[in-house]
Amino acid sequence: MSVIRVDCAAGRLTFGELAMDCTIGRGGARPAADKREGDGCTPVGLWPIRGVLLRQGRVESSDIHLPWRWIRKSDGWSDDSADPAYNRPVRLPRAFSAESLIRSDDAYDVIMVLGYNDAPPVAGQGSAIFFHLSEGRPTAGCVAVERSDMLRLLPLLRPGDRMDIRR
After folding, report:
1. Gap between the Cα atoms of 131 and 104, Å rounded
2. Residue 117 has what pLDDT?
3. Active centre residues (catalytic)
4. At 159, is the pLDDT very low, low, confident or very high (cuts 50, 70, 90)?
5. What digits encode the pLDDT tens for the residues 35-91?
6. Hey, CA dihedral for 64, 89, 142, 7, is it positive or negative?
7. CB neighbours (10 Å) of residue 59?
8. How far is CA 120 from the centre of its chain?
9. What is the pLDDT of residue 71?
10. Which backbone phi and psi does 153 adopt, to 5 degrees?
């Protein structure tokens, strides 16, 4: 097991000898126990990487060793505390609020799903904490890096790897 280390105060992400700038949530970093849906904070802690979602035609999949699949047009992620599928992948359209995984920008061309608040999910404690491509601004609570950095890092990761987010 290897660990991706995120130093929120420095805005740096490291994996072994590889180091890069990263962006976190607009609300900064917060202990996971204090995290709330919509607060814009990145949860501090050690989170497993559950798998990777890729946007077809935007990125190659040949060198990926983590479990992965293509994002479909109907893919979403529930962010509604009243939804029985809260903080889970869902199919759109949906009666409850959910974020579409197909975006007009490139941020979700690569999504690493972090195992935050998912075993089991606690309603209102935060959803869709991903490691994705940078949008050029703070995230809604995720960790993000530039495309070139993500594409250097992605082939190095293996099942069992984790992300350690620290203030």
Report:
1. 18
2. 98
3. 132, 142
4. very high
5. 999 999 999 999 999 999 999 999 999 899 999 999 999 999 999 999 999 999 999
6. negative
7. 19
8. 17
9. 98
10. -80, -40
Cβ–Cβ < 8 Å for 71, 55? yes
Cα–Cα distance, 73 to 76 (Å, whole number): 9
Encode the chain in three state secondary structure: CCEEEEECCCCEEEECCEEEECECECCCEEEHHHCCCCCCCEEEEEEEEEEEEECCCCCCCCCCCCCEEECCCCEEEECCCCCCCCCCEEECCCCCCEEECCCCCCHHHEEEEECCCCCCCCCCCCCCCEEEECCCCCECCCEEECHHHHHHHHHHCCCCCEEEEEC
Identity of the residue numbered 144:
A
User: Amino acid letter at 13?
Assistant: L
Residue 28 dihedral angles phi and psi, to the nearest 5°:
85, -160
99-155 pLDDT, tens per residue? 999 999 999 999 999 999 999 999 999 999 999 999 999 999 999 999 999 999 999
Residue with tokens 């991903």: 130
Structural domains in the chain plus CATH codes: 3-166 (2.40.440.10)
Contact 155/61 with Cβ under 8 angstroms? no
In this structure, what token pair is assigned to residue 143?
Answer: 């960790």
Rounded-to-10 torsion of CA 57, 59, 65, 69: -40
